[in-house]
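seq as requested:
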Amino acid sequence: MTKWNYSEVNDKDRLGVFIGESKKDKYLRKFGMRVYDERCINLPRRAKLSWNWSAFFGGVLWMGYRKMYIELIVLSTLIMLPILIFSDISDTQDTIITALYWLVLGLISNSLYFAKCKREITRIKSLNLSLYDELEALKQKGGTSVIGIFISVLTLIIEIAIYVVAHLYLI
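struct tokens:
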């Protein structure tokens, strides 16, 4: 656990608190930040594009684990739309759409996660809490969640049910 000199906490430190101690260096590098450069204290406008194997293989489960619930719902909806809208879609086209979804997810997930981190840091800073309370709020809102995995599984079950109903009764 990091011991804080509260007079010297910067946005890079806040980002590390939000991500969680065990994975902060990994994600800071993925976001394009110099981990051990003390001059690098401000967050970049956006993260550099980088690959995330966990998101590629885990998909919405990774999003739930990282508490990215809005992104989870939006991307789950986006994968279902072409399949539901185009009733004459073949199994091959369905497979191509799904494969593209996983590839894009692996490619953009770190950027999506960075945007969420930055949004939450800005929101929590705007509450004008004491620095201690601010860091505690960042820890609570960030990090990981086993419950998020269950939310993801529920989303997948709903998605599969919609897919099955659409193919059995509507298409």
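The chain has a mean pLDDT of 87.
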